[in-house]
Amino acid sequence: MTPSQFEQITRRLKPQIEQIKESAHELHRSVCQTYDQHLPYGFHLDMVVEQIYKYGYCVCAREEDVLPLFFGGYYHDSIEDARLTYNDIVRVAKQYMNPEQAHMAAEIVYALTNDKGRNRAERAGEKYYLGIRQTPYAPFVKLADRLANTSYSFGHSNPANAHMKEVYRGELPHFLQALSVQTDDIRFTLPADMVASITQLVTDDDNQ
After folding, report:
1. How far apart are CA 140 and CA 1, in angstroms?
2. Phi–psi pair at 39, nearest 5 degrees
3. Dihedral angle computed from the Cα positions of residues 150, 153, 156 and 162, in that order, rounded to the nearest 10 degrees
4. Closest alpha carbon to 49 in 78, 29, 20, 27
5. What is the pTM of this model?
6. In sequence order, which residues have a C-beta less than 8 Å from that of residue 207 and are 6 or more positions away?
7. Can you tell me the distance from the alpha carbon of 48 to that of 76, in angstroms, rounded to the nearest whole number?
8. Which in 8, 43, 104, 185 has the greatest CB count within 10 A?
9. At 91, which helix (H) or strand (E)?
10. pLDDT tens digits, 161-202
11. Which run of H or E residues covers position 40?
12. 3-state DSSP call for residue 60?
């Protein structure tokens, strides 16, 4: 899909995308979830979806996949942080798209939901990344999520962000390898410009 084609489709689907956005924002407000301790969590969701707007054309295989892709971006933390179940996600997604699309959207969200674990390594272990690699668009949305978080942490100075800068820097080689799928299916690819952007963030001498 060309950038122009993707832009035209997203413009046409703007009402549905905005409805998905508002419902996701409201969901996270309802559980009092914040970002960086003081921002509404919708701030983070919008950062993730900004990457989808920018790079979605690189991975989107057909017009029917656009709404599931955006839904995955807005709802990617809804099971993990907002107490929804997989069936809840399917039900919500069906308000905006047909059953096939809703299933695809729910699979993206489910794939990006951390496993049970006592620490970060256990919550995002090999089983977790295997599920992402097996789910269309999940590697891309996960990369969009990480690029959003990394960009924020490297652009804001407080102890929590300083800590996460080092976490993201140390994890990057394994993270990119864990998301990579050897396939010709465009839905599983990681756009080169996104990889370059996040790599530059964590390796730039000015960020050390």
Report:
1. 15
2. -95, 145
3. -140
4. 20
5. 0.94
6. 154, 165, 201
7. 9
8. 104
9. helix 86-93
10. 888 899 999 999 999 999 999 999 999 999 999 999 999 999
11. strand 39-40
12. coil
